[in-house]
Every structure is written in structure tokens, then in C-alpha cells.
Design goal:
With 65 residues, the chain is mainly alpha-helical. The protein folds into two domains: 1-33; 35-65. It is built from two helices and no strands. The chain has helices at residues 2-26, 41-64. The protein starts with a helix and ends with a helix.
Length: 65
């Protein structure tokens, strides 16, 4: 019984840490940053602008080749 409780506690802690680190990794943040903190307007603009530049670069590359 003691081993089952210990394994469940380890599983719970691992799942919580994995969710925390995973949510930060998906959002391209520091791994130990607060995952509940909202992105600032500048961060949102930076991410959308970089996507726009990448798609524009691809379109120009297709036109020149």
C-alpha cells in the first residue's frame, strides 16, 4: 500500500511538472516561466509578424524560381 501511494504521488508530480514545462515549451517561452501569464500585445504582434514575413518570403521565393 505504501508503494502504491508513493508511485501515485510521483505520477501526480510528474504530470504537473510535465504540463507546466510543456505549456511553456509550446509557447516558446522559458521553461520555468509562469504558464498562466498572458502574452503581452508586443509578443502577440511579434509572433504574428514573423509568420507574415515567413509566408511573404515563401511567396517571393516561389515567384523568383
Amino acid at each position: 500500500m505504501k508503494a502504491i501511494k508513493r508511485n501515485l504521488l510521483i505520477l501526480l508530480i510528474g504530470a504537473l511538472l510535465g504540463a507546466w514545462l510543456g505549456s511553456n515549451w509550446i509557447r516558446d517561452r522559458d521553461l520555468l516561466a509562469n504558464p498562466f501569464k498572458e502574452d503581452t500585445v508586443m509578443d502577440k504582434l511579434r509572433h504574428s509578424g514573423s509568420g507574415l514575413l515567413d509566408s511573404g518570403k515563401d511567396a517571393l521565393h516561389k515567384l523568383t524560381n
